[in-house]
UniProtKB/TrEMBL annotation:
It is found in: Cell membrane; Membrane. Part of the twin-arginine translocation (Tat) system that transports large folded proteins containing a characteristic twin-arginine motif in their signal peptide across membranes. Together with TatC, TatB is part of a receptor directly interacting with Tat signal peptides. TatB may form an oligomeric binding site that transiently accommodates folded Tat precursor proteins before their translocation. It is a single-pass membrane protein. It holds the Pfam family TatA_B_E. This is Sec-independent protein translocase protein TatB.
Amino acid sequence: MFDIGASELLMVVIVAVVVIGPKDMPLAMRTAGRWIGKMRKISGHFRSGIDAMVREAELEEMEQKWREQNEAIMKSTPQLPTAEDMQAPSTPAKPVVQAAPPKDEEPSPEPAPEMEPSNRKDKSASDPEQAEFHLPPPPP
């Protein structure tokens, strides 16, 4: 902070001894030390007050962010049932039953997809190799 070198400090000490005198020098040094200590104590107190204000401001900012995130989470998630909802009688859900296709109908075979004209052979749909059957999915 203050750039005081050894030569400058020696010059201040020589001037202080000449002006104050060697007899009163210890008393002057004690007084200067007390003042410097008080200044350090006041600056430390001031610095700690500023640091506390900054921490409080950051804490309030973090609490505000936490509240906003908490509200966003609460809005995006479904609400859990309360104790009152748990005590209310509930009706069991009915299972969904799909109707099975009639058994007496046979699916109609579809013609095989046509490839290139040179590879196509003239076979009837009754040929088991060419007939494709599309069966309905098995019942659950």
